Every structure is written in structure tokens, then in C-alpha cells.
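Budget justification note: compute hours in this period were largely spent on complex prediction jobs such as the one shown. Inputs:
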Amino acid sequence: MLYFIEMTITVHGEDEMKALGKRIGSQLKAGDCIELVGDVGAGKTTFTKGIAVGMGISETVQSPTFTINRTYEGSAGLRLSHYDFYRLSDPGIMADELAESIDDKETVIIIEWGEVVASIVPKDHLRIEIASPSEESRILTLVPSGERSQALAGGVA
Ligand SMILES: Nc1ncnc2c1ncn2[C@@H]1O[C@H](COP(=O)(O)OP(=O)(O)O)[C@@H](O)[C@H]1O
Ligand SMILES: [Mg+2]
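Corresponding output:
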């Protein structure tokens, strides 16, 4: 397949955002990678909180800013590794850590502000762009780059 189909979803409010994240989270498997793109306050971390719930993680996801990475243990041996490279011009050893997470057979990866690690991120990952047309809503554009991310995007529709 050469071309993948983008999808746009309007999401009203934090609860709906978490519900959508949960829906994707329940489909995730080890090796899956989601890149979240959007300004500060777009809702990237809110969405990740929902993903964690969908993965059966009981711990509440907190923004990893300053620590860059937080890892959570989900049900069925699946792990969530959440990265936030905000304002990091050089990822340094965190790039190595990310590469290790990508190779790990039990880990799902979520990345905020991933431009700085673009060369490490798996080619087939689901990019989700979040725009904020108003305070009350967000527009999510799901951009698949391979068969797996296309399947994930399709599972949300
Ligand atoms: N779909 C949505 N519609 C309206 N507000 C939202 C939505 N999703 C998240 N928010 C709100 O946006 C704010 C910022 O969310 P956050 O997840 O911290 O953003 P980011 O991680 O992108 O900086 C929070 O107050 C949250 O309640
Ligand atoms: Mg955030």
C-alpha cells in the first residue's frame, strides 16, 4: 500500500478526549507508537491519560515534562512508555532510552514533541495532530504512515 487515509475527528471537551484515547488504547499492542502533535494545551497529555485507561493502567498518567519519560505497567504485561521532548534541542541519552523502548517487545510508545527524535521513531507510527479551534473543542487529524497505524486509525472511526 502506498497511500494511507487520514481521518479527522472533532472532540468536545476533556471527557470525550479521554474516551477517544481509551478507545485507541484498548487496541494497542507492543511495538505500537503514537506521536501527538499540537501546541501547549492542545490536549496531548489528556489524550494519553485515556490511552492508559484503555490499556488497563490503573495509575493516573502525569505529564512527563522535566522527567521526559514516564513508564506505566498495564494489564496483560503491556507497558506504556510516555515521552515528552518539549523544548529539548538535543535528546541526549533519552534518544538511546527511546530506541530501547522501541526495541522492547512489551512496550507501547506515546511521544509528545517528537520532532527532535524523528529519525528514531518507527516509520509506521500513528501521528495525531491536534488543533484547537476553540476552548471547548479540538480537531484531531489521524495521519497513518503504514499498515499498522492505518489499522489503528480505522479502528477509531
Ligand atoms: N477535546 C478537548 N476539548 C476541550 N478541551 C480539552 C480537550 N482535550 C483537552 N482539553 C483541555 O486542554 C487542557 C490542556 O490539556 P493537556 O492535555 O495538558 O495539553 P498538552 O499536553 O497538549 O499540553 C486541559 O485543561 C484539558 O482539559
Ligand atoms: Mg503535555
